[in-house]
Amino acid sequence: MSSLLSHKKDQEHLRKSISDSCPASSAASSRSLRHERLLRLGSSGSSGTVTDTSTNHAESYFLQRENRLSAKKRAEEEKMNSDYKKMYEKAVATNQRLKSRLETSKQELSEIQDQLQRTQNGKPDDGSNMLEAEKKGSWSLKKKISDMEDQLKVKAELKLENQRLKDENGALIRVITKLSK
């Protein structure tokens, strides 16, 4: 009877230790608990056949329970590992996609910067050359226009003087003809 009481106390102690055990070290703790239980059962099993049968029954019950718990914990760990693996693979795929987009954006940026550089370097020179040429052209045109205006003024003055001289010449011819008669 005392062996049964000690066995029940052992069972309660085992239940508490199993429920208090950490899930991360479940495999190691379940092995150590199983080993402890076997040692206790082996030391208390010398009292008789009744206790041996109940011990075997209790031992098989606890072994089945441990197996179920460890299988459940393994399944949870595998599920968590597969979840982490899926999350990792998803993160890697996202990183690859973002890296390719970044590379594409960098290439586009460098092309645009090259175009901008070429535009800035090419246009102002061409623009300033064209501007200078236009300025020179307009200056030469203005000079030609002012020269032509001056020539027109001179031409008008010459026409007036020529007309005056013709009139004088005609008057002189009349005076000479009157004097010669």
From TrEMBL:
Gene3D superfamilies: 6.10.250.1820. Residues 148-175 form a coiled coil. GO terms for molecular function: enzyme inhibitor activity; phosphatase regulator activity; protein kinase binding. One of its GO terms (cellular component) is cytoplasm. Residues 7-18, 65-81 have a biased composition (Basic and acidic residues). Keywords: ANK repeat, Coiled coil, Developmental protein, Repeat. Residues 1-81, 114-137 are annotated as: Disordered. Residues 83-181 form the cGMP-dependent protein kinase interacting domain. Residues 49-58 have a biased composition (Polar residues). Residues 19-31 have a biased composition (Low complexity). It comes from the Eukaryota. InterPro entries: PP1_Regulatory_Subunit (IPR051226), PRKG1_interact (IPR031775). The keyword Repeat applies. This is Protein phosphatase 1, regulatory subunit 12B. It comes from Nothobranchius pienaari. The gene is PPP1R12B.
